[in-house]
Amino acid sequence: MDDARHLVASARKLLILTGAGVSAESGVPTFRGPDGLWKRYKPEELATPQAFQADPRLVWEWYGFRRERVGACRPNPAHEAIARLTLENEDARLVTQNVDGLHELALEEAVTEGLCSETSVSRAAPIRLHGSLFWTRCTGCDHRTLDRHPVDAKSEASLPRCPKCAALLRPDVVWFGEGLDPEILKRAMEAAETAEVCLVVGTSALVHPAASLPLLTKESGGVVVEVNTESTPLTDVAMFSLRGRAGQILPRLLTVESEP
Ligand code: BJW
Ligand code: ZN
User: Closest ligand to 128 CA?
Assistant: First the structure.
């Protein structure tokens, strides 16, 4: 832990890549853990454009359920430690696969507590690889909107529709087989290529291109540090792999102790 803490603290450029495990202690179910299943469906069966085309009501029901569940969750000490670090360190970047908005909430709470200004919050905002649970986009036109309302998924007729063209709205997230926003991916890849340390937290590292970002850091001469309750395909690539809960490890890992 001490060696990893010194390494992270000494990095001039730091990339933090997070996955569902960082929100597990907030009560957000991970995708592939024991509580990752919803009804009898695996996330891989619902998070696809094919599933939405075949049964938009079912897919919206799942997203409505997740919106409600995530809407009641609060950031945990891992989100808070990351928010503090990215607010204090201009050369730290946060890239997240999560769609739950808890990193953003931790930043907003830091402003409310007077720990930082609105300007530093926009600089520290996470690069969201897979979109957001609380945004929708139209399947027929370019309309996109923030939407925190409960979803009425009783029937196909009650699903949310576009105010501009009346086509079905869909969650503004990236499903399997869909390309990531090229501009967002470019920013994430640049951050990975220039990072001296890539700190990977709470991801199974199975989903690409997100899981390839730490490899970019390594190929560019940087090092990888992993925090996870279990080993992953990145464990062998990492210089340090810290086994345990993000909410317990990150506050210790990211706290710079002042010299006596
Ligand atoms: C804790 C903890 C605690 C628990 N503390 N840790 C290269 C190789 C092979 C395949 C591909 C490839 N490149 C692309 C692909 C295909 C595909 C893919 O990756 N497939 C693999 C699964 C085989 N990728 C795609 O399709 C991507 N698109 C793409 O590449 O497009 C290319 C293209 C170009 C041009 C035209 C068309 C296409 C898109 C991927 C989108 C992923 N979307 C989802 C759903 C988002 C919306 C939603 O939320 O509903 O994103 S799937 C789901 O997985 C979600 C997550 O962000 C993502 C990653 O999951 P994550 O975060 O790792 O969670 P878990 O549950 O897997 O892991 C949790 C971890 O936490 C575990 O390790 C625990 O141990 C740990 N943990 N508690 C610390 N307290
Ligand atoms: Zn529309």
Answer: 1
